[in-house]
Design a protein that fits this description.
Blueprint lengths: L2 H37 L5 H32 L2 H21 L3 H4 L2 H32 L5 H8 L2 H16 L4 H8 L1 H18 L6 H8 L7 H8 L1 H28 L7 H29 L2 H14 L1 H10 L2 H25 L9 H18 L1 H12 L3 H20 L14 H5 L1
Length: 433
């Protein structure tokens, strides 16, 4: 494989992932600012907002199903075809949200259609998250730089977050009545342009060489998800456990921090600005740590080191947060999300080494999706509840540290596979014994 080819594959996956998360996050911003008024007007303002935010949570619950569905076809018909489908699904659903009439025009059908489209988004992003870095890994592993390229692809979530916030910053410059009437729709409609660019690049790619080899050898699994659970249950459970703190730390930093800011005497706008700056730095940091995985040949060690930093970080972050000093606050967020960057930037190289090629998409897709639900879907609520019932940040920090510690210990037990000849090792025997 040439370097130009590797760069093209990584760029296609990065663009696809950035588009998926851009669309995912603009929905979340709209749920907070717009949807309660347009799609749930019969409720009081607070209840309307809560109902709108509940549609945001629907996507998290759909992720394991999406991980299974797209993982199944990714292992049976190929990575490339599934990634085209996820991009079309996400882009189509997002564009339709931008065209969806409000409650005043079509009544109860409006919120129902909103939930359906959100489900499609959740299903699609689960397939994209795994498929993008998996296609990149399988195209670049023979060139010796899979960590660098998958690390770059891993920045798709923060690039999407930055694009979404930038788009909403621009449309929020409109007068409020125009913003509510048509301005909020522009970021959704713009996604159609982004998807067109992504599809143009993605359709030019070749199929994964690993999947092509599996297909040529006649080793395509009839039911890959079931085979993963039966033959590799410990590795599957391990990836679930190590994924949980990733989601917790990201959503505590980006969501819970806004709720904690008033308690620390810090303006929410200051916190949002700091998070955006840190996310911009992560775009550089994640590929660096992926590159470090290439240089050392030990991505598992670097991945685990990130979890060790994450285990310590909450007890640094909260005290610095409480100072109210913007410089110290920035330093605290850098520590909190720095460990996340180490961990997240190396996962694209580490996870594929745990499973045989004919089961990778399903194994990683479902386990990462389940870990994301157990972590990200509930982290802000758990953190707010712990803070409210105790009146202290210490239980929240213990919750975060506990999950990171469990993940770090689990990482020690998750050893990469040494050869494809071990593809059918039956770990269920170890469970039975």
């Amino acid at each position: 494989m040439t370097s130009a080819h590797e760069r093209r594959v990584a760029l296609a996956s990065l663009i696809g992932g950035s588009i998926e998360y851009y669309e995912f996050f603009i929905y979340g911003l709209s749920a907070s600012l717009v949807f309660g008024k347009l799609f749930f007007p019969s409720a009081d303002p607070l209840a309307g907002t809560l109902l709108a935010l509940s549609t945001f949570a629907v996507a998290f619950l759909a992720r394991p199903v999406g991980g299974w569905l797209f993982g199944h076809f990714g292992d049976r018909i190929g990575r490339r075809a599934v990634l085209i489908l996820t991009l079309v699904g996400m882009g189509g659903a997002t564009t339709l949200v931008g065209l969806l009439p409000g409650y005043g025009a079509i009544g109860v059908a409006a919120p129902i259609l909103l939930v359906v489209l959100r489900l499609v988004q959740g299903l699609s992003v689960a397939g994209e998250t795994t498929g993008g870095f998996l296609l990149t890994y399988e195209h670049t592993e023979r060139g010796g730089r899979p960590g660098l390229f998958t690390g770059a692809v891993s920045t798709g979530n923060v690039v999407g977050l930055l694009l979404a916030n930038g788009a909403f910053f621009l449309v929020n410059l409109l007068p409020e009545d125009q913003f509510l009437r048509w301005g909020w729709r522009l970021p959704f409609l713009f996604s159609a342009v982004l998807v067109g660019v992504g599809l143009y690049i993605r359709t030019k790619l070749a199929e994964s060489p690993d999947f092509a080899a599996v297909k040529a050898a006649g080793r395509v699994s009839r039911n890959p998800a079931l085979e993963v659970v039966r033959r590799h249950p410990l590795r599957f459970l391990g990836v679930v456990l190590v994924t949980i703190p990733q989601s917790i730390f990201f959503y505590v930093a980006s969501v819970f921090s806004l709720s904690y800011a008033p308690k620390a005497g810090v303006a929410a706008s200051t916190v949002s600005l700091i998070v955006m700056v840190i996310c911009a730095l992560l775009v550089v940091a994640m590929p660096f740590f992926g590159w470090l995985g290439d240089r050392t040949g030990r991505p598992r060690v670097i991945f685990g080191a990130g979890l060790v930093v994450m285990a310590v970080a909450p007890f640094v972050w909260f005290p610095l947060f409480d100072t109210g000093n913007p410089v110290l606050l920035f330093l605290g967020f850098a520590v909190l999300l720095g460990g996340f960057a180490v961990n997240y930037g190396t996962q694209g190289m580490f996870y594929p080494q745990l499973f045989p090629a004919h089961l990778r998409y399903s194994a990683i897709g479902v386990s990462v999706a389940v870990g994301g639900v157990l972590g990200g879907a509930f982290a802000p609520l758990i953190a707010i509840w712990l803070l409210g019932t105790s009146g202290s940040w210490v239980p929240v920090a213990c919750y975060m540290t506990g999950t990171a510690t469990i993940a770090a210990v689990t990482t020690l037990l998750l050893r990469p596979r040494t050869a494809d000849s071990a593809a059918f090792v039956d770990e269920s025997a170890a469970v039975r014994s």
